[in-house]
Design a protein that fits this description.
Blueprint lengths: L1 H59 L16 E2 L13 E8 L5 E14 L5 E11 L2 E13 L4 E12 L2 E4 L4 E2 L6 E6 L8 E3 L1 E2 L6 E14 L2 E13 L6 E7 L3 E9 L4 E9 L15
Antiparallel strand pairs: 1-5, 2-3, 2-16, 3-4, 4-5, 5-6, 6-7, 6-8, 6-9, 9-11, 10-12, 12-13, 13-14, 14-15, 15-16
């Protein structure tokens, strides 16, 4: 009888031991599965963060740099340019007073014409007339070409420019057209300007190699036509003339209100008047601005 009780006790102990071992194995498997799931989630989160970081970097690098080629779809562009920092409304005239590095006073007249031009790369651009005079004598005359993409970036497609002396063309250096002789378009104003954002403004090797960088969107400035806040400031440089540095300030719904030459020559260019014109203003031949 005693032997029977011992046998029953031994069997019960073995059953209990087996059950305990099975539970431990189950716990180990569940812990292992949980660890694997946690590791997988961590790896997924890391991969997602890396992808986001890459996307953000890629997004910031979409603006053209240096001589990087670009493939633009003309269907994505418009001559209706309404970027708040660089609006180009046909008929608008902006008059600037410029003091050059020698103290000479120049008058700069910028007219957003009602004309458009199809650029060699297939994009249609708005024509803007930019004329510089000193004591009524023509110093420089330029047709600039701008177009805005679907995201709101304003692109600079080129310029037909000439410097004058005694009423005659002295040089047309700096003229270029995107798609001709390797010339490339650039950005004049990003759709979402943020401090630190850098971009090519224009590229025509040896002739036009300007670059820009957003420094701030929280400046303030006083010019002849008023006081402006939340002003955007850019740092403009020239790869051909590395000693040249210029700061430009842009007011919302106005455009450039002040330009300051900081290094390598240049002076102060200040907006003194903004109005509207009608008809064919600014459309005369190069060298014959009107009005």
């Amino acid at each position: 009888m005693v032997k029977l009780r011992l046998l029953v006790a031994l069997i019960s102990f073995l059953v209990l031991l087996a059950a305990t071992g099975l539970a431990a194995c189950t716990d180990d498997r569940e812990s292992s599965s949980a660890n694997a799931a946690s590791s997988s989630e961590s790896e997924t989160a890391t991969a997602s963060a890396d992808a986001t970081s890459t996307a953000e970097t890629s997004g910031s690098s979409e603006l053209p740099q240096g001589d990087d080629p670009v493939d633009l779809d003309p269907a994505n562009f418009t001559t209706k340019i309404d970027n708040p920092y660089f609006p180009l409304i046909p008929g608008t005239r902006m008059i600037y007073r410029e003091l050059d590095e020698e103290g000479n006073e120049l008058k700069v007249v910028v007219i957003v014409t009602r004309q458009t031009k199809e650029i060699a790369n297939g994009v249609t651009a708005r024509v803007v007339r930019d004329t510089v005079t000193e004591d009524g004598e023509l110093v420089e005359d330029t047709f600039d070409w701008y177009s805005q993409d679907a995201e709101g970036n304003v692109w600079y497609m080129g310029e037909n420019t000439a410097e004058f002396e005694n009423g005659k063309i002295k040089t047309k250096g700096g003229s270029f057209e995107a798609g001709v002789d390797g010339a490339l378009p650039g950005i004049i104003m990003p759709a979402d300007p943020q401090p630190g954002l850098a971009f090519r403004q224009e590229y025509y090797e040896g002739e036009a190699e300007d670059n820009g960088e957003i420094l701030s969107t929280e400046e303030m400035v006083d010019v002849r036509i008023g006081h402006f806040v939340d002003v955007l400031m850019t740092k403009d440089t020239n790869a051909i003339e590395p000693d040249v540095l210029e700061y430009k300030l842009y007011a919302r719904d106005v455009g450039m209100v002040l330009a300051l030459g900081i290094s390598g020559g240049g002076g102060r260019e200040e907006l003194v008047k903004k109005d509207r014109l009608s008809g064919s203003a600014g459309t005369g031949p190069l060298g014959t601005p009107n009005p």
